[in-house]
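Worked example

This section walks through a single chain of length 198. The input is the sequence exactly as stored; nothing has been trimmed or padded.
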Amino acid sequence: MPTESPTGKATARTKRADARRNQQTLLSAAAEVFVTSGVDAPIRQIAAKAGVGMGTIYRHFPTRADLVTAVYRHQIEACAEAGPSLLAGADSPFEALRQWIDLFVDFLVTKHGLADALQSDSSRFAALHAYFLDRLEPVCAQLLDAAVDAGDIRPGMQPIELMRGVGNLCIGRDSDPRYDPRRLIELLLQGLRQPRPA
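Given that input, the structure is written out below as tokens.
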């Protein structure tokens, strides 16, 4: 039985790594386009942003729903992975929480139009929502716990409450350019702060 040479295995790994990297680039480009143009943006616009041909997109994602789902999952992963990194690198747990909430808001903006894009497949939408909670709620909990342990914020805020509150404050952002939810979100975060002794 023929065996593959180490060089052949390395080449196969390199090709797989390149394919993953190209797919990540494509998903990042699609997410940016969705933010500016919505999930109904022309595929050619996404292809141009990613620097690939339209055939490449259709090869990876045969339908728009496949692409939207993949972008949504990609953004969830990016937001989930950012939590521990921010906690390790920020000046304080509260600052890590603030930066993560900022990324979470960016994610919620990308999510705009997701329900409409997947309206014919409610089971896919339900599965994505469950994935969203499974991946992001523990990250939010970790950040909140670290901020409480450091004395930055008062205890008692549940991760789902904070995530839902931030999500609710983002409603209406697209329909009224005068509304900036980040101002109210900052007030919400400041309201969590532990009062410092005088």
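What to look for: The longest helix spans residues 6-37.
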